[in-house]
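Supplementary Data S3. Sequence and structure tokens for construct A.
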Amino acid sequence: MSSWAAKLQRLPAGVAERIGERIPAGAQPSASSSSNASADASDDVPGAVPAASTKTDVLAALREKMERLKASSRHAPARAPSLPVRAESPDTLPFLAECDGRLWVRRMVLGPSHRVGVVPVDLALTADPAFLALLALDPAVGACSFRNALYLDLETTGLAQGSVPCLVGLMHAQGEELVLEQLLLKNLDDEGVMLERIAERVAAASVLVTFNGKTFDWPLLRSRFTMNRLPVPTPPTHLDLLHVARRVHRSADVPRSIKLQRLEIDLLGLERVGDIPGSEIGAAYWHWLRTGEDSTMRAVVDHNAWDVYAMAALVGLYGRPLEEELAPGSARGLHDFLPQVAWTLKRAGAMGDARKVADRAVRDDGGTLAYLTRAEIAKALRDRDLALADFEQVLALESLGIRKPNLGPGTRSSTKARLELAKLYEHHVRAFGKAHEVATGGTGEDEDALARRLSRLARKATKTEKKAPST
């Protein structure tokens, strides 16, 4: 029996009957009968391939069947997706490789409509360098153009010595728009390429803007340039917004270590959702290097972008011209901090501007710090009558318990006011008895100095009483 006959005998009876005839044992099927039987079987058995007597016929039959399948698929209706297709997963890192894959870069253009909370980010382009120079106590800032500013923020592998910047946020102006550029270090061996890009951006800027950059970001970069045997770029004028924030927002209720996220909430009207704590960034980066899980690193990328955006918004807020800040009915970003602004302007030597801001602070606020600040400015301007009246008002508010929050500790304000009033009563008004009475309440001096003052005032008061005509 041929192999073909043996295979045919093993078919079920129903299939053999449909072929047309049962082949007896030992019979040799003819070419025609085998081909016809195969053709009939292929019509009834799904997926069957027509038999052929030669390899050429088999290949031809397969090609014919493939063509029929292609034709049917072309005419089939397109299947609509059940869900919208996202162009990019929210967890995917949106970086492109540059420098032969050694530098990974993300660029975003921020148009005029982009806001950080309620503050348009493009206000930074029109910031007043002269006013920012006063708040920064740095005259060099006044000569800068903030259309050519470079905003810099680093995320590092840790806070210890030897940390490496693993993600760098840079932002600069391009026409009327701001461009965010983030540099991601995918291989620690490529740090030098990233540092070279930073050096290019720094060299092109007229002012470097950071938040705590004078203490952290720039010293770290300087050490990394040295470690990579690269020339350390000469930084332009450096505006550290943390120093400005400490002066402008100093108060009894605000700690000295001011956080950028706190300023976003209080000044910009933005509260981050899902932000990664800074202390976890180093661990997240190392996890990403080990596992390649982009979702872990995406939170770090967003955190860095928010930091850079916030710095630009703060420059726009702090850099509003003083005339706009004091204009009636204007949306004053620093309205709640006018006493501190006035005090900072006094430190900068801008006494005229300091007096204007202090007058506005007393008119709008009326708290102890507003009167205390204006009294100090009036004293420096030798307006002793106004200084005397304002120091008296500080004591009156303290005695009534009227002290607005955020405006400094009352004990320190009243102590300072008593000392200044004792001096003014003694030397300006020559009311020695009142000077002695005020000083008795405490002036903040050490015991010996206070004792000498009280003794002197008592002697002067006694002499005055003796010289006074009797009634």
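Construct B, processed identically:
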Amino acid sequence: MVLTIEPYVFNAPHTLDGNPTLKMAAKRYTDADRGSTDGITLLLAHGAGSPLLKAIQDKEQWEPTLDKMFEAQHRKVGAMRIREAWAFDWQNHGDSALINRDALHTRPRPICKRSLIYVSGRSRL
């Protein structure tokens, strides 16, 4: 089983208050051996709790779990299949924080959670 990982960057919705638009980094995971269009799509986010854990709270934390899940579906016949999984970095975490570095320094307001809903509804998921 080969897990294919593709990086993406999504534009968050424009703000009405003039703040810079932020971007959201994501990764798409698929099983290169299967290539099926059937199955479910998983949308995964990370926790955003303790500032002490912020360094390890990013989309890549899902990779060991996804590897095991995709591998397990090779061993089960007739089970529900995972077609793809998407893992997102919140706009001030991981790769998203690097992409948004300048905008985050000048942003006076907190980041709106509607961005994740916007991305999941507007993408080709």
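The chain has a mean pLDDT of 78. The longest helix spans residues 63-75.
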